[in-house]
Amino acid sequence: MNQQIILESLVRALESWVRNASAAELWRVHREGGLGASIRTEGESVVHVRIALDGPPDALSSIGKTDGRLPMTEAFRGAHGEAGWGTPPPQGSAEREQWFLSSDVAQEQARQYLLAEVVARRDALVRRVEAWAAGAG
Hints:
By secondary structure, the protein is mainly α. It is 48% helix and 12% strand.
């Protein structure tokens, strides 16, 4: 099967995972990474890609990992009607996780960051497809 078709399927699967991930899953990926993909083909035209947390470490494992640091954006400065939001709680604190889990704006920013990572880290996606084609997964 054409590796470009598999790569496109992998991108779509990652984008779907990012759009549908729970707040806790998003937080975990930003803190720890750990995304993985299983790729299966049927014949020459059907590709099945499943994205999951905690798969075997591979080229996708570090995508999105920021140790819980999200990029400073307008959302963090209160530009989306959340005047008075102020500064997020300190890095590494339990309050920061609770803040993230309760903030739709922070979660949306996390989704946008992950989607940008999928585009920016295309080399990691290519390596994952090449490993699959070589029989490693």
